[in-house]
Amino acid sequence: MELELTDKSVLITGGSRGIGLACARAFAKEGCALHLVSSNAQALDTARRELEASGITAVRTTAADLADPHARAALIDAAGPLDVLVNNAGAIPGGTVDAVDEAVWRASWELKLFGYIDLAKRVLPAMMERGSGVIVNVIGIAGVMPRADYIYGATANAALNAFTQAAGVQATFHGVRIVGVNPGPCATERLERMTRARAQATLGDPARWKEMLVRLPFGRPSEPEEMADLVVFLSSARASYLSGVVIDADGGTRYR
User: Fold this and answer.
1) Which phi and psi (to 5°) does residue 36 adopt?
2) 225-255 as b/e, with b when 16 or more CB fall inside 10 Å?
3) Cβ–Cβ contacts within 10 Å for residue 99, how many?
4) Rounded CA gap, 20 and 13, in Å?
5) CATH topology classification for 9-186+222-248
6) For residue 77, with 0-12 CB atoms within 10 Å meaning exposed, 13-18 middle and 19 or more buried, which class applies?
7) What pLDDT is recorded for position 255?
8) Strand order in the sheet with 177-183
9) What is the pLDDT of residue 135?
10) What is the pLDDT of residue 191?
11) Phi, psi (deg, nearest 5) at residue 240
12) What are the average pLDDT values for consecutive 10-residue runs of the chain, which has 256 residues?
């Protein structure tokens, strides 16, 4: 299937590991010019060297704390014209409403909730003026499957679902698409950390964390590459009539 992504410029936040890095690999296979952003300069350098070793030469990297509005503004100013923005940076800590310090959840919202919205707002004017462009928000299934022990993440994700749906409808009148992906449990370092904490709380032993995953659809979490393939498809010409939609890519977890 020809995705018509060759030479497209793609900015991926949180691009040094997990789903973000998997997206970078997938876009690279389609011949895209990549710009990866992360707060971890060392991880970014490792990702860049991996991609270049595979034959990809058009890889830019920026180490930045995207929780800082000034850093977000500087990033978009320096990035140049973009065909695709993949909002992927941000991890909101788990915990019940009384268990997470206010400064912590507000800081995590500044990175993910406000960061996604701010970056989208900053790239939209140029995309709308040109009459083309795609924004993909990688959000999380908790936005439609809220849990008390992940209340701040679920609330932020629900807001991003609403933003994606509403802004995605408006953007189509200017030739731009905004779509979202809600991954369910995905085999990343973050999933292991969170599941270890849950195993400690429920089983009294963090080493038993894999037992917490056996009842997932297909008996496993998704792989980052599965989420990346969906992001790349949604960014492509093959998804040209999709905007204002968020795909729940959870294997049916929410129905179990």
Assistant:
1) -105, 140
2) bbbbebbbbbbbeebeebbbbbbbbbbebee
3) 12
4) 7
5) Rossmann fold (3.40.50)
6) exposed
7) 61
8) 59-63, 33-38, 9-13, 84-87, 134-138, 177-183, 246-249
9) 99
10) 75
11) -65, -15
12) 95 97 96 96 95 84 97 96 97 92 96 98 98 98 93 98 98 98 87 77 78 78 95 98 97 74
Single-letter residue type at 187:
A
Beta strands in the chain, from DSSP E residues, in sequence order: 9-13, 33-38, 59-63, 84-87, 134-138, 177-183, 246-249
Closest CA to 127 of 235, 247, 20: 235
- When computed from its CA atoms, the radius of gyration of the chain, rounded to whole angstroms, is 18
Q: What is the pLDDT of residue 208?
A: 82
Predicted confidence at residue 77, as pLDDT, reads 95
Structure tokens at 119: 């970056």
Rounded alpha-carbon distances, angstroms, from residue 40 to 21, 61, 90: 13, 11, 12
Residue ranges per structural domain of the chain: 9-186+222-248
Q: Are 232 and 30 in contact (CB under 8 A)?
A: yes
Here the tokens at position 189 are: 């370092």
Helices (H) and strands (E) in the chain, counts: 8, 7
Q: How far apart are CA 55 and CA 47, in angstroms?
A: 13
pTM of the model: 0.93
- 227 token code pair: 């989420």
Counting Cβ atoms within 10 Å, is residue 164 exposed (0-12), middle (13-18) or buried (19+)?
buried
Tokens of 246: 């968020």
The owner of tokens 């292991």 is: 192
